Amino acid sequence: MQLTVFIMAGGSGERFWPLSTREKPKQLLKLVDKERSLIRMTVDRVLPIVPAERIFIGTNAIQAKGIAEELPMLPIENIIIEPQFKDTAAAIGFGSVVIGEKYPDATMVVLASDHLIKNEENFCKRILTAAEVAEDRGAIVTLGIKPSRPETGYGYLETEECYIGEPTPVVRFWEKPNLQRAESYVASGRYLWNSGMFIFNIATMNQAFETYLPKHAALLTQIAKLGDAKRNYSDAKLNDLFSKFEKISIDFGIMEKFHNTMVIPVDFGWNDIGSFPALDEVFEKTEQGSVVQGSRVVEVNSSDNIVLGMSGKVIATLGVSDLVIVDTKDSLLVCSKAEAQNIKKILEQLNK
Amino acid sequence: MQLTVFIMAGGSGERFWPLSTREKPKQLLKLVDKERSLIRMTVDRVLPIVPAERIFIGTNAIQAKGIAEELPMLPIENIIIEPQFKDTAAAIGFGSVVIGEKYPDATMVVLASDHLIKNEENFCKRILTAAEVAEDRGAIVTLGIKPSRPETGYGYLETEECYIGEPTPVVRFWEKPNLQRAESYVASGRYLWNSGMFIFNIATMNQAFETYLPKHAALLTQIAKLGDAKRNYSDAKLNDLFSKFEKISIDFGIMEKFHNTMVIPVDFGWNDIGSFPALDEVFEKTEQGSVVQGSRVVEVNSSDNIVLGMSGKVIATLGVSDLVIVDTKDSLLVCSKAEAQNIKKILEQLNK
Questions:
Q1: Which residue in A223, B138, B161, B255 has the fewest CB atoms around it within 10 Å?
Q2: Residues B15 and B141 grouped into a single domain
Q3: How many domains does chain B have?
Q4: Residues of B in contact with A338 (CB under 8 A)
């Protein structure tokens, strides 16, 4: 089996402003580990089962340089630069074209670049199981996270029955539910969080593109014929072909429709670090229940805050709770945890 | 009449941390006016009625240098440095000894260094009236602020009847009341806020010291005999005498007991800027009801905050209200307005 990894590293870096920016999005931040960025952690996590030369990154021109610097162990040509963002179906199709040139029989493991996983050994074990299922049964295999709470921020995968580590068909993909539905999903025991990690053989995916997204398939065939030009994100022909892609996600465009989408229920400790409050689950807390990183922080009559001091100054909280406070060299954010999803509204105002 | 002004400028600078420090307390901050510190505004305010050579400052060794730099128009010898802090009775007694050498028949106007007054012309008019009353009737004359709300943070002066600008005897001094009492004070129309500004002839005050604080009077007599030594805060004899002062306030030690304490009810717009939330009354507000100074501030779903950005960076608030946010080069404070009185607790922890 030619096991390969394709790490999707786009992202506009809005949800972690002011730590993150378009040039330095979440996956390039050392948000969890003092030494390693999230993307570096993602690569390190799969190195026990996949050699560096078979790990590929899908990204854009703005972020490519930062990623290359962050991942010196990867061959530079493994950093695949999309000329335009056309959602995940095009991104994965383009990735599979580039990877398929070298590894025509590759089994591709598609991963996000900015998620956190606690039990990395178990993660690798599940990936290998998924790869076998993908090979043996011609399936597209996703990893489904056993839900620990009625989260309304994730999509769900419905199954008939669901046991950790046992591959099972996906009955249906569900969009982000409201709280009531999320509670019923968790109570049923048959629903899993859609982690966005999935595994397939390139031949399986090519076939699926032809069946469900034939226009994508035709464009990908033309891109394959471009030769070296497809490695140059400013190439006019490549851009012209890319501009014709419909913007559609791989979930909606293929996986929900594919006749043989399976899921492996997993419980290796997964966190997509979707916004600042997710750090509550990552870090040890102070006696006051706060997460404190970087600066010297004094808490008086304060609790349950997330304080990230990147400028080294003293930070004092007095009589405040459930806040996110992020102090960088250039910017300061003071935000309620409940509103942390809306940081993009700040950027909209700043960009005016 | 030898009208002189004695501005008390001690203060530990705790309530405005991190803007203020022991070396740079509130009165040295340009908190209200971009060009002028509060003490400079205090001096400028009386210059129309008292020449610079008759304006004196009472302070301590730590702050004297900063004050001298801030007030180049004053003769340097007018900055009177107390060797030790022994509360206001000793401070005013010491001030009157130094001032009395040059102006033995002085009428002394005692002012705080860090208050704000809106109608400065009216203020000067009231001071002149008070000085006349002090001269003509041998009274200690205070200025009493017509209360605009049932403030529990101030002491009150009770009168028989009370009309703006009309001198009237003080019936009684009252300590900071609870809300219920404060409400009845305001409703009665006979109670005034104790502003801490008062006016007396030096001879009147000397007599009062002898009657009500005879130990202070005796120490002050000995200090008067020290000659130039009393101008050297590190002089051993001066320190020895100072160490013997009982720590007592002028209000409690003399004014409450004096047989002829009068008050002039005033309404010239007074703000003691006691803590950050007082700035709500000083500055224009944004559409969101926030006070914003210094930095570029972006407010999203936020209101009624006080944001003071001294480091020039972008500050964004998201989903927060009624906070005080102060960002300096070295420190960041995030504090609920309701707890702004407790900033000293932060300093206690920082100094541990």
A1: B161
A2: yes
A3: 2
A4: 319
